[in-house]
Amino acid sequence: MTLLGLALREAVKGRARELGFDAVAVGPAGPPPHAGAFERWLAAGYAATMDYLERGSADRGDPERLLPGCRSVIAVALSYAREDDEPGWRGVARYARGHDYHELMRPRLAALAEFVCAAAGADVRCRVAVDTSAILERDVAARAGLGWVGKNTNLLATGLGSYFFIGVVLTTAALPADEGQPDRCGTCTACLDACPTRAFVAPYVLDARRCIAYLTIEHRGDVPEELREGIGEWLFGCDVCQEVCPWTRKARPGRDAALAPAGPLGPLEALLDLDRDAFRARFRHTPLWRAKRAGLLRNAALVLGNRGDARAAPALERALDDEDEAVRHAAAWALERVRRLE
User: Fold this and answer.
1) Which of 47, 53, 117, 301 has its CB surrounded by the most CB atoms within 10 Å?
2) Which residues contact residue 239 at a Cβ distance below 8 angstroms, ignoring those fewer than 6 apart?
3) In what order do the strands lie in the sheet with 164-171?
4) Is the dihedral of CA 99, 101, 105, 107 positive or negative?
5) Using an 8 Å Cβ cutoff, are 173 and 4 in contact?
6) Could you give the CA distance from residue 191 to residue 174 in angstroms, rounded to a whole number?
7) Phi, psi torsion values for 157, nearest 5 degrees
8) CA-to-CA distance for 83 and 46, rounded, in angstroms?
9) Is 193 a catalytic residue?
10) Coil, strand or helix: which one is 79?
11) Where are the alpha helices (DSSP H) in 27-158?
12) DSSP line for 139-202
């Protein structure tokens, strides 16, 4: 560790904060510490239908496969915590209530990478990643000291909880590494105990097949009937295991206004009337786009069924003729519940 290296690391951190990131840490390259556990997780089937994780598993096991000659990893956090819970958006995970975070983070990460290249030398190369690249960003960020992996499998950081996005800059520059943080979860099991669908196989192990976030975002087609009640009021994603976490309850509010809702979500019944064009116009540059029209309308029907409010019956009846089979099935299930609960 040299004075020049330390000065470069601090300059990189300063630039990251200027770009609006809430925390930054630097770690070594090389295979992430949980690469083996990730392979075992895949082999157990816990990734459900997320086949892209299997396809990119080799790349995820070593950052150098993404950037040959990679020597350092710069990990940053962008907080999306808010001072209030936005009651009108209560069924949407907090991270998804504003603008698409990929569109916010990529330009900033690119600017940070440009700074590293300019400051470290002409022969230095960099590559940026959010969560669409084949890298175990949570693990490399934990090794860099950005936080620690909690029992709910989220990265936790003091002052931020888990309400933050992770961004990564891989670089061939040799930067002194920060110290990792210890696991501060202790004996607490609040997140494991609170999961509505019992998706945690064990501490630090999540079965996506039972996870509300997976079911309402990544899963295509019908949601298994035995899990529909557990979805409760969640239209998109789930924050339960984060909401009960003592560290997340202490999170300071984020600063980026673009991550706050631009307006009200509106009644779920209105979502059931969205055609493809209307869905695109409403959600194209938001995280909710990930669920696709069919997924979001399916979820809306399931939530309305869980509410058991007879006033939703007309909208659900119209959805029985939807172009998508999963929406039709969800509407039929919801109608049956609404009528049974009247």
Assistant:
1) 301
2) 93, 94
3) 23-28, 72-79, 164-171, 126-129
4) negative
5) no
6) 38
7) -140, 140
8) 34
9) no
10) strand
11) 35-43, 51-55, 57-60, 101-120, 137-144
12) HHHHHHTS-EE-TTSSEEBTTTBT-EEEEEEEESS--PPPPPPPP--TT--HHHHH-TT--EEE
**Residue listed under structure tokens 């064009």:** 277
What count of Cα atoms within 13 Å lies in the side-chain half-sphere of residue 18?
A: 9
As given in the structure block, the two tokens for residue 336 are 């049956």
pLDDT in tens, the chain (342 residues): 566 778 999 999 999 999 999 999 999 998 888 889 999 999 999 999 999 898 878 888 888 889 999 999 999 999 999 887 778 899 999 999 999 999 999 999 999 999 999 999 879 999 999 988 889 999 999 999 999 999 999 999 999 999 999 999 999 999 999 999 999 999 999 999 999 999 999 999 999 999 999 999 999 999 999 999 999 999 999 999 999 999 998 899 998 999 999 889 999 999 999 999 999 999 999 999 999 999 999 999 999 999 999 999 999 999 999 999 999 999 999 999 998 876
Among the options 131, 222, 309, 324, which is catalytic? 131
Q: Which two tokens stand for residue 284?
A: 């194209």
- What is the distance between the alpha carbons of residues 321 and 69, in angstroms, rounded to a whole number? 55
